[in-house]
Amino acid sequence: MSTTITKAGNRPLSAYLYKRAKLRLFSLLALPMFWIVGVYILSLFLLLVTAFWFVDPFTSKVIVGFTLDNFVSIFTVPAYISTSIRTLLIALAVTGLSVLFAVPLGIYMAKIAKPWVRNALAVAITLPLWAGYLVKIIAMRLVFTEEGFFNWALAPFGLSGPTFSIPIVILTLTYLWFPYMALPVFTAIRQIPPNLFDASSDMGAKGFTTIYRVVMPLIVPAIIAGSVFTFSLSLGDYLAAKFTGGSTQMIGSIIAANINLNPPVAAAFSMVPIAFVVIYLMVARRTGSLERM
Amino acid sequence: MLRLSATTRAILIGLVAFILIFMYVPLLVLILNSFNLSNISSWPIETFSLKWWEFAITYQPIRTALLNSLIVATGSMIIAAFLGTLVAFALKGYDFFGKATVNLLVVLPIALPGVVTGVAFSNTYSNFLSPAGFNIGYFGMIVAHATFCIVMVFNNVFARLKRMNPSLQEASADLGAGLWQTFRLVTFPQFRTSFVAGALLAFALSFDEVVVTIFTAPPGVDTLPLWILKEMSRPNQASVVNVVATVVILISLIPVYISQRLSRAQDEVR
Questions:
Q1: What InterPro entries is this protein classified in (chain A) (predicted)?
Q2: Measured between alpha carbons, how far is A212 from A104 in angstroms, rounded to an integer?
Q3: Residue at B227 is within a domain
Q4: How much is the pTM?
Q5: If chain B, 270 residues long, is cut into consecutive pieces of 10 residues, what is the mean pLDDT of each piece?
Q6: Does residue B107 sit within a domain?
Q7: Which of A136, A222, A139 is nearest to A180 (CA)?
Q8: For chain A, which has fewer Cβ within 10 Å, the N-terminal or C-terminal residue?
């Protein structure tokens, strides 16, 4: 290499920085923290500030002021309360359904499948994660519409698939976020030492008992880590409800509908998913699962 | 070994097959429908044709949207690559008060729902910056995308730095190289692959993002997902939407595929 290497004394800046770890750390963090705190966190804070403003009922202009009405409406308007509860239940159902699919899949991949099947399945599960969010919503809409794939496939059996409603929203959200649950659960099951299964079977436990009494308790942290994503991403979603839910409304629908009409109400409502997610993260943290994320 | 009865095994295999069908049938139906001759999506497909592909290639709004998507994804990738690498170096090399908080701050933009992130930026742009006489316009979209892309580059570079041997940098300094020279000749070549892999993931993440884009795109500007969204609001799904959706799948999957190949190649070398 033809690079000339000069004496340290000829590099005053390097020599200066070399002795000052704090200054080096500061120069590394200054720009990223300016971006994340100065732009993103500040925006979230300004959103909170806006939530206390109100809209002039006649000119529909945003008025800078202070009112708690927007927050009060979240807890008093019946339609808002029911939407919050519905959204919470949908997010929980998505998380439950993901666990229900992820555990058998993980057991099969980690403990039963041959190595090449396991590798192929690992790719097969990760791949759709990158197929595009909106693309997956269109795809679900396409197969569940009246003349769609599922009604066509079920017709010979005299059955018809569900129409666009809450169950399809739950299925679509599960479709979107399932890999976030499947991958940590699979990794956790893989790490269970095989002799635990031997011990369980020596003591007379059948397959199902072993899964329920040995596997399940060991993968709880992985399930909680995965549920942070399935829960929080479902909670804030509104396009799945818009395109596959018929008239189903979620918290995100209210925020999106109000951002231009009444920004303060949209801002106040944005605090609802933030609050749910923060509470969920705090509960998850108490169980010590976040280190696995 | 986990011993399961034949029935339990059969149930498990059945479930796995069901999950795979559930994951892949919708995507396959969508891709096949992009070759549907009819004007709107249908099943089963009666006549296959390339009509809508030919239409999409020459249709100006789609080309403009594709160009916008590429600009936004490239811009946010560059910003995220730079900022993500800086954070990775800070968290790897130093122990300091608030380290866990910095880590959380990097993850936060992707952990909070897209609608919250989108509304927060939109609110700042239209209720604070605009009244102050500053119109962020097109760049606002790139700022928002870059924010949630940082974590992709950070994760990849940080994981690589953790496995690097710090004595090489010390040796370089002992031989008289300055900080920049050491970085350029010693450190960067060691994490270049992870850097590229992370940047590609950031590109893919930005390319198919839609919720944050809805709230931050200036009026009249469409990215590809945004264009799809507008078409979807019409009653019947036009076949051309399936073409664009297939293109989005391809353009997101190619960088992810390269990124994973790079990461694997790196693991095999060492």
A1: MetI-like, MetI-like_sf
A2: 11
A3: yes
A4: 0.86
A5: 78 90 89 84 79 87 93 96 94 83 85 90 91 88 95 91 84 84 86 91 90 92 91 75 88 84 71
A6: yes
A7: A222
A8: N
